[in-house]
Fold this protein.
Amino acid sequence: MDEAISELELSRISRAEFEERLARTRAAAADRGLAGLLVVGRSFYDRPGNLAYLTNHFPPFPTMADLGGWQGMGHGFLVLPAAGDPILVVDGRAYREDLVAVQDVRLDNNLPRAVASVVSEKELGTIGLVGDDILPLSMYRSLMDRLPDVEWALASDIVEEQRAIKSPAEQHMLRRAADVAAVGLRAALDTISYGVRENEVNAAGTAAAMAAGADFVRYLRVHSGPWSAWGSRWPQASEREMAKGDLVALDIIGAVKGYGFDVLRTTIVGSDTLPEQREMCEAVVRALSAVLGHARAGVTVGDMVRAGLGVMEQAGYGEHMARFMGHGIGLETVEAPLLVPDSDVELQPGMVLCVEPGIFIRGWAGCSIEEEVIITDGDPEVIVGLSRRLWA
Amino acid sequence: MDEAISELELSRISRAEFEERLARTRAAAADRGLAGLLVVGRSFYDRPGNLAYLTNHFPPFPTMADLGGWQGMGHGFLVLPAAGDPILVVDGRAYREDLVAVQDVRLDNNLPRAVASVVSEKELGTIGLVGDDILPLSMYRSLMDRLPDVEWALASDIVEEQRAIKSPAEQHMLRRAADVAAVGLRAALDTISYGVRENEVNAAGTAAAMAAGADFVRYLRVHSGPWSAWGSRWPQASEREMAKGDLVALDIIGAVKGYGFDVLRTTIVGSDTLPEQREMCEAVVRALSAVLGHARAGVTVGDMVRAGLGVMEQAGYGEHMARFMGHGIGLETVEAPLLVPDSDVELQPGMVLCVEPGIFIRGWAGCSIEEEVIITDGDPEVIVGLSRRLWA
């Protein structure tokens, strides 16, 4: 690594913590009789989670089709023998030697070829695959062809279970990321006025988050007027000019030093909030409070979610409320657990959740508010410092 | 679709053009004896290409792990019978009815389940898979389990070959996207000064591109000083403060109304360009001119690329030049053809290429310049309106 650039220490996760993660993962693989694991990761802006958790490598290249002898660009692989040193296989011309937590790194723009070569070298028999939900079929077949004697087993849970509980250092990173989200949302909120376009609001919020240290802002959804009832839309912001009285949903999603943020607020253009707008938005605030009141270790996700749904149902929004109420967050935006009413997952200290109750009345308007919270044995720690009520 | 929002026509590609694409694709499938095609697409910011080409649907949701009964979120599927109407399977709560070019659309957060149901309903026997390079192994297995009697064949080339040649309407969209890239780069360039952080430059450029109509800016790489020698790095911009005399690489990547832009410039902080910096940068300018001089229908990609490499080699940069010199661009950032010296792909009118020669001297500095050009029978049409020489 060049002296001139080595001062850029980007992560607060210590080398010792990476060593612990690798040791736990190796032990779990050995317990299952696996000779090793193959861990897949995808571009930093999308699905780097399992790979980044074990290596601190975030594939910088965008994913692309297999072209001209290059295969798997935008991915990265960790070969982790149950007994032996880990090997990281990455694309591109260079990687962050100053950051990556693995010593043995191979560079190749044909990733399955390089992975197969490493697996052969290590003489691994049965390999647990971590990331069958992102390994493309073409790469899997290429690996199978090159490694006819290897047996494959599914093993994503070995890493994903560890990722569900955030260490103190990870909680610190997630607080910092939430701070950046708040900076972005505040800048976006400051821009909102009638006649302003959705994409101008997006520009202001995105810029503020980037200048405050975001690695990327994957999107800052700005959905105004009837679009506030959608929840997800392509594109993230349009040329629509906001009008007085429009509700506006602002959802900022990105990461800081690898750790995600996802915060949503709903506001109104101007100060003439209609009674029916206020009623809907206040029901969402109350639902959020009810959910957070149940967000503590030992409670099931289902019980917590139903507490919020009950509030919105009682307020008469049963037909229009979203039954999906959020998700975990960490090295990826959407992680386990999914906050849905039929989940029997038990909350545990160290889980970090995005809680986002919402009411969406198609053709008219919607309101949703999203907090990020850390689960503890007592009250949850809300890590977003931004008012929930952004209407007059 | 709600009246209030239907005015947002976001694409210049006509319904008739989508019908032509579908008809061509159906005919090619039938020619191969396929009962139909299954076309996979991924989130708008990443790999929507084949799906968007045939449907104008851009999956708005980020990709996520399979959780709580949801599978394949962030993807979309087109089931296209060789004889019969297309069916689009999408995730989320809603889709852009005003934009999508397919009438029959199914919403389901378990995508393989919904796809299997459609395929069973249509009684398709042998299906050509378009997108095995992005279909996750878990979804493929889920489809196989649900459809034991279906035979699968690989058929990505049926759509990708069509996508390589851009129609006049697509060329129009790509020119417009390149204009937005130039707006973003100009704003970034205006911010560059000593003491300014890379991520402040990124913020200014990203904001300008978003306000000018970008759907997203996937990244605006700002790599200063020794980092200018990298080409790709996580994260896209850091807290590094630029110093007088630093070379700075600026690479803006995103899309406008679905069509991509990818433009790169190298500049210097201040006006005291060192002779060895100027010499390197001028060699890149000459290499770019040589490549563009060969960029015309009938020439092979390899001949074109080697013309540029020859210039840099002769200038003494043989050891430090990148042999990769760019790629096609369209509904995805990186499309066929890949511009590498051993390619025998023949250039054709309507190809749109990102041409990016570069010299990268590790530990010191690098220079690369990227133009977007449309291949014609005569001289290529350069569609980026931005000076190549941004040093004193």
Chain B touches chain A through 89 residues (CB under 8 Å). The domain at 168-382 of chain B is CATH 3.90.230.10 (Creatine Amidinohydrolase). DSSP finds nine helices and 16 strands in chain B.
